[in-house]
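User: Just a sanity check before I run the rest of the batch. Below are the structure tokens for the first item. I only need the designed sequence back.
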């Protein structure tokens, strides 16, 4: 029985979970489960379809949860047989299903490769089955589909070098070249060489020294260090490097003070490179404004955004969102003076768990986001908790109600959350535990 209507799926899923919970409490035994996947055709041309079948066997009647994920996703996925599952549903990157008490089940689904897939691409299938919530087994058998050439296909594409570094040279970019006392900015240095070197050395000196300097990211670095007056790093066996570091202007600095960067790049083979790009930071007066921002506590299952109730300022401004560690999560586009903002701010990357976020008004100069805006010697900001994952489906007492399960399955069908979150929500509803 394949269920297509979401409301029916959700209702039956709740019943299945209740039955499963009752069986777990009554039986109390340890179960084991196996699952095997077979794929009719493991080589497909772009746009072609094949059938995947998974057979599941448990040693005792059990409440079974099934999930099969696809990386990358397919053009289309359709469940064609599910052994009378209580719930089965599919989207482009995943199929999930649940059964009540049973010791065997079979689920089959058609998958279609994207029309724009390239010969040589491969789709990986990675799934699990769980018996009575505590015995998880990976699905064995066929687990890949290779994309091959179809009629008229040719594979003459060249891989492009996606590194954002110069062919040969070194460049420095300072995120904000004007900084108010006590605030920080990020500096990125990109280095490229014509050929690989055994040892790449980079260093920078600051005059005068900053209040603090810290390396944020330096992939594959072998040796590195940071002090208020210098930062350095060493890489082995490479032809490129990228390093990001943060510098903080002293709180007692004066408007008009400047901080100068001087640095060098050299290699074991005698190559020496000058660092081009930004090389100074100027201290500016603390920007002030008459403004406000209000944000309510909110549930965001995906962890991908925050919604502002209302914000405004009497100067051009933007709203920047940071987490408790001070890392930027997202920001608005520059806004005009006296323009009211009441909308969502998308995060650059979803946050993985509930967190307190701070939304701060920043100045805007020539279309660029600058320093925090102050009013009465304090930043214009607001901080609120953002509830993510299963926490987002809880009510005021911290527990997940039945409606929370309905909402979670609906959000999964809309590709807002993953199936792991759905199972977490169902488990929390069944146990009645507080999740926040």
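Assistant: Here's the designed sequence for the first item:
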């Amino acid at each position: 029985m394949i269920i297509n209507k979401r409301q029916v799926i959700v209702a039956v899923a709740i019943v299945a979970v209740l039955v499963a919970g009752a069986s777990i409490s009554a039986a109390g035994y340890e179960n084991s489960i196996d699952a095997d996947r077979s794929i009719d055709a493991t080589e497909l041309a772009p746009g072609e379809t094949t059938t995947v079948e998974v057979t599941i066997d448990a040693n005792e009647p059990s409440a079974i949860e099934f999930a099969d994920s696809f990386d990358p996703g397919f053009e289309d996925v359709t469940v064609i047989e599910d052994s009378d599952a209580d719930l089965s549903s599919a989207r482009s990157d995943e199929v999930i299903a649940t059964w009540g008490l049973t010791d065997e089940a079979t689920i089959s689904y058609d998958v279609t490769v994207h029309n724009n897939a390239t010969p040589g691409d491969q789709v990986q299938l990675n799934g699990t089955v769980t018996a009575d919530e505590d015995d998880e087994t990976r699905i064995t058998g066929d687990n890949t589909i290779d994309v091959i050439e179809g009629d008229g296909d040719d594979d003459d594409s060249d891989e492009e070098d996606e590194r954002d570094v110069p062919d040969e040279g070194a460049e420095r970019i300072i995120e904000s070249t004007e900084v108010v006392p006590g605030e920080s900015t990020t500096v990125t240095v990109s280095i490229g060489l014509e050929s690989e070197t055994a040892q790449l050395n980079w260093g920078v000196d600051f005059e005068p020294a900053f209040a603090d300097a810290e390396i944020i990211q330096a992939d594959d670095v072998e040796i590195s260090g940071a002090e208020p007056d210098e930062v350095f790093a060493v890489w082995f066996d490479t032809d490129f490097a990228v390093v990001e570091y943060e510098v903080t202007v002293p709180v007692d600095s004066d408007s008009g003070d400047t901080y100068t960067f001087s640095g060098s790049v050299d290699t074991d083979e005698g190559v020496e490179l000058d660092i081009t790009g930004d090389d100074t930071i100027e201290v500016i007066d603390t920007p002030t404004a008459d403004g406000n921002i209000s944000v309510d506590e909110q549930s965001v299952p995906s962890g991908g955004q925050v919604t502002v109730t209302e914000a405004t300022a009497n100067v051009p401004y933007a709203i920047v969102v940071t987490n408790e560690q001070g890392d930027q999560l997202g920001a608005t586009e520059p806004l005009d003076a006296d323009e009211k903002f009441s909308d969502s701010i998308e995060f650059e990357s979803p946050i993985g768990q509930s967190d307190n976020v701070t939304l701060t008004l920043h100045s805007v100069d020539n279309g660029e986001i600058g320093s925090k805006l102050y009013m009465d010697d304090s930043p214009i900001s607001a901080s609120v908790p953002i509830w993510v994952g299963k926490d987002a489906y809880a009510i005021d007492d911290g527990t997940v109600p039945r409606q929370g399960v309905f909402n979670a399955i609906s959000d999964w069908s809309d590709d807002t959350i993953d199936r792991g979150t759905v199972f977490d929500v169902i488990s929390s509803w069944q146990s009645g535990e507080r999740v926040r």
